[in-house]
Amino acid sequence: MIGTDRLCPNCMNDNGGETICPVCGYDNNSIHNDADKLPERFWISDKYMVGSVISQNNESVTYIGWDNGENTVINIKEYFPSGVCVRNPDKTVSMVSGSEFAFNEGLMQFIEINRKLIDTSLPSVIPTVSVFEENGTAYSVTNTLAGITLQDFLSRNGGSLKWEQARPLFLPLIDTVLGLHELGIIHSAISPKTIIVGRDGKLRLTNIGISGIRSVGGEIPAQIYSGYAAPEQYGYENIPMDFYTDVYGISAVLFRVLIGTVPPSADERINGDSLTIPAKFANELPRQVLVSIANGLQLLPKSRTESVEVFKNELVYGETKENIRRAGENRRREEAEIKKGNNENLGSYHILDSEIKKIIIPALAMLVMSTAATVSGTVAWFSGSRTAQLTNNSAVINPEGDLQVTLSAGTATTVNEKVVKED
């Protein structure tokens, strides 16, 4: 067993008793944690030794730590919400007068969330080992994970991924978000900064925290991620956050991963709802991927894909509400024709049972200046200064220039546009 006095508080390796850690270069004679943080080598729960600060947000402070019972490196997260509490000289935490409700509400959420994550089997979550109250606040303990953020990963790998690369990475993460929802947890901060790419090549979702820091207007300062936060997180039309908030976040992350650019901030899109997709990506990406992202990025929840489960079905199988509705109509039409003993007009409307679960998205009407597609009750407008053409039931766009995508609710219409061909 290594004596804790020989553990480097910055990396938790045996420093051999040296002042300068031979592993990470940390100077043991320097004070690194600020006065409002726990000091290095501070003990909590008579079991965990606190090390250097790893990160901090408006909800909590995360330290590297040492589990003296298991003799292993851990992460320790301390509930320390900005603006509503202070650190006392004895390192306990006190609430700011008048902020007791905000502090205690967040404290209860912090404890509840982490208790739900104890020993979780969700594939893209680092399980909580322990959660407890002490020093006037609460702590959660997790194992460590070596890796880099998805944001750094993308910057080191050309800025974007192809769908064939992203698909196996993101499906377990999408399943994890669905699992969180089944536990009653809304993440509401899904972004390339809160997703870790582990050394095992798998994605992990971090920063699962209290709702009080995920929307503006609360007593605890908001911490949201521009481009990935949904309109309701900006207080848009007083719409509450819900599971559809995470649908927006996942869609925005996939947009960033597949297109290579951050989507416009939702508070900017409210005044001018448009996205730009380079035409080459519109050509390369499977149609159902573009459709599912477009539906997931709708501003209003009533127009947006309502759940992660539906989003996944759209993303993987192309099972949009519109296509399923059309399949049902075609099926009923076929049955009616069979009853009449007249099958001569079935043609391309015929859909086999085996195809119901994997419906081909119908071809779009082709316009000189724009193409409109009605999908799941929403309209995706694809406009650009070039002519689209159909090849094998897919829209092929001249790869020069950008594809302007404007999302709005309603019925597909064209104004002052010339239809070149329509199937």
Describe this structure in words.
By secondary structure, the protein is of the alpha+beta class. Helices cover 26% and strands 22% of the residues. It is built from nine helices and 19 strands. It has helices at 100-116, 150-156, 163-182, 243-259, 266-269, 279-284, 287-296, 308-317, 321-340, and strands spanning 43-44, 48-56, 60-67, 72-79, 85-87, 93-95, 128-134, 137-143, 147-149, 195-198, 203-205, 274-278, 366-367, 370-375, 378-383, 388-391, 394-397, 402-409, 419-421. Helix 3 (163-182) packs antiparallel against helix 4 and helix 4 (243-259) packs across helix 7 (287-296). The longest helix is centred in the middle third of the chain and has 20 residues, at 163-182.
